[in-house]
Amino acid sequence: MDQPVPISPPLRDRLTIPVLASGGILMAVMQTVVVPLLPDLPRLTGASAATVSWMVTATLLAGAVLTPVLGRAGDMYGKRRVLTGALALMTVGSVMCALSSDIGVLIAARALQGAAASVVPLSISILRDELPPERRGSAVALMSSTVGIGAALGLPLAALVVQYADWHTMFWLTSALGALGVAAVWWAVRESPVREPGRFDVLGALGLAAGLTCLLLGVSQGGVWGWGSPRVVGLFLASAAVLALWWWQQLRAERPLVDLRLVTRPRVGLSHVAAVLTGFAFYANSLVTAQLVQAPKGTGYGLGLSIVATGLCLLPGGVTMLLLSPVSARISATRGPRITLALGAAVIACGYAVRIADSRDLWMIILGATVVATGTTLAYSALPTLILRAVPAGQTASANGVNVLMRTIGQATSSAAVAAVLVHHSSPLGGVPVPTLHGYLLAFAMAAAVALAACAAALTIPGDAPGGDAGSAPGGARESRDGAMEGA
After folding, report:
1. What one-character-per-residue DSSP string does 47-112 give?
2. Distance between CA atoms of residues 52 and 420, nearest Å
3. How far apart, in whole angstroms, are the C-alpha atoms of residue 259 and residue 279?
């Protein structure tokens, strides 16, 4: 009797994972490409350095606010639809940057590009809905790694463009890639049938936006305005008050923007805590490495590398993240994602130990940065898997959006903390204050301590069964009519 011939899935279905992963990489590239431009933008735009810094701050703020909002919208109105819209906003922002040298237009355009921060959580939710369980783990791990892969690719790419072409060319390039990404998602990605119907919580979205804006604005500008200045203290107090009122409103809303009853469960809440700590530890690697290798040789430790060479130093870490994403998925499948998360955080700490041991030799710097990237791959691949196992199918995009928000808060805090340490430990070189090697080593030690805290947080997350379905609720839980899980 003839055996049935297996039927290959159509090309459209086979391209779903590559298309979504390319969208995540593009988002990370978009966030990174402006970094090589920052020293020259005051001259190119006629604006002050403080004003130019808002090209980074605006993207951070918009991404933090829009990620949970667009995640909830995806759960309600269709994940592919919202994902396409986020990529389209990113593309419009790139076109605006390509057409203008006015700093006001550039800042507004970069805020539009912040919408792309929702690409990864929305894509992970689509993968949960569309893929069979045996393919889900590796696909989610790859999607999570795209953040580091894109960041590692974006810096040298942008540096090359800035060095050899007009700076607007870089944004024309990202515009073309963005338009291609929108078309590819619309063609290759099916609309998920899983929805969480209801009325969108406009009041909750506005409250979250106001609270997060005050918080992240204070964190990102504290070093410039002064941590004890009335503006920064007022922002932190306003954030605390607004977020407290927002929490109260969310607990009483019939269809809240964020289901706080899920957040208070240990599996979800501790995963968010680990995300904040991991984001802090990961981001210090890119910040400190870039500054360290570009420091003048007159400091006694600096290598005086160019922006292009600096990007190439971070490139091995991005390649490592791409290659190790399937390995992290296998560890999660056999040992459980919380073990993968704890292992990743421990590896990050080991990477910083390498940096503390030797931060003068280039090969040791690259080795330490790559070890940190390896740990980040393990940790970032485990976080969405933990969330997917702990929340109902109808809330995966919003829950993963909150988890990405937690990483963003960790990264913003890391940026402020590293800057504070390096400013405090500086010495004059040619009349210009330059961070000392001791300051860099303190920054590494701080990041390593936070990574160990993330490891401890991961180990306190309630255990999950190895080999479990990343798309199922834990403990045989069933979803109730209002979307909350019973029996979890």
Report:
1. --HHHHTHHHHHHHHHHHHHHHHHHHHHHHH-HHHHHHHHHHHHHHHHHHHHH---HHHHHHHHHH
2. 20
3. 23
Greatest mean pLDDT among 167-176, 281-290, 415-424 lies in 167-176
- Average confidence (pLDDT) over 400-407: 87
pLDDT digit string, tens, across residues 235-254: 999 999 999 999 999 998 88
**Between vectors from CA 403 to CA 27 and to CA 107, what angle results, nearest 5°?**
40
Counting residues of the chain whose pLDDT is more than 70, the rounded percentage is: 92
pLDDT at 277: 96
CB-count exposure of residue 86 (10 Å: 0-12, 13-18, 19+): buried
| Alpha helix positions (H), 336-395 | 337-357, 362-390
Q: Which residues 6+ apart lie within 8 Å of 120 measured at CB?
A: 24, 27, 143, 144, 146, 147, 400, 404
The answer to whether residues 79 and 72 touch, using CB atoms and an 8 Å cutoff, is: no
CA distances from 63 to 108, 115, 163, 405, 446 (A): 13, 5, 28, 8, 26
The CA distance from 144 to 149, in Å, is 10
Strands 432-435 and 478-479, bridge-based pairing: unpaired
pLDDT at 28 over 70: yes
The answer to whether the beta carbons of residues 455 and 443 sit under 8 Å apart is no
Close Cβ partners of 38 (under 8 Å, ≥ 6 residues apart): 52, 53, 55, 56
99-113 tens-digit pLDDT = 999 999 999 999 999
CB 20, CB 189: distance < 8 Å: yes
Q: 23 with 183: CB under 8 angstroms?
A: no
Q: Are 312 and 366 in contact (CB under 8 A)?
A: no
Q: Give the integer Cα–Cα distance in Å for 43 and 400.
A: 40
Average pLDDT over residues 67-94: 92
User: Can you list the pairs that 159-167 forms with residues at least 24 positions away whose Cβ atoms lie under 8 Å?
Assistant: 159/36, 159/306, 159/307, 159/308, 159/310, 159/311, 160/308, 161/33, 162/36, 162/37, 162/40, 162/307, 163/306, 163/307, 163/308, 167/37, 167/40, 167/44
Is 76 in contact with 186 (CB distance < 8 Å)? Answer: no
How far CA 142 is from CA of 26, 268, 390, 395, 423, in Å, comes to: 14, 21, 20, 21, 36
Q: How confident is the model at residue 9 (pLDDT cuts 50, 70, 90)?
A: low
DSSP 23-60: HHHHHHHHHHTTGGGTTTHHHHHS--HHHHTHHHHHHH
Instruction: Tell me the C-alpha distance between 167 and 151, whole Å.
Output: 18
Q: Give the model confidence (pLDDT) of 322-349 as tens digits.
A: 888 888 888 988 888 999 999 999 999 9
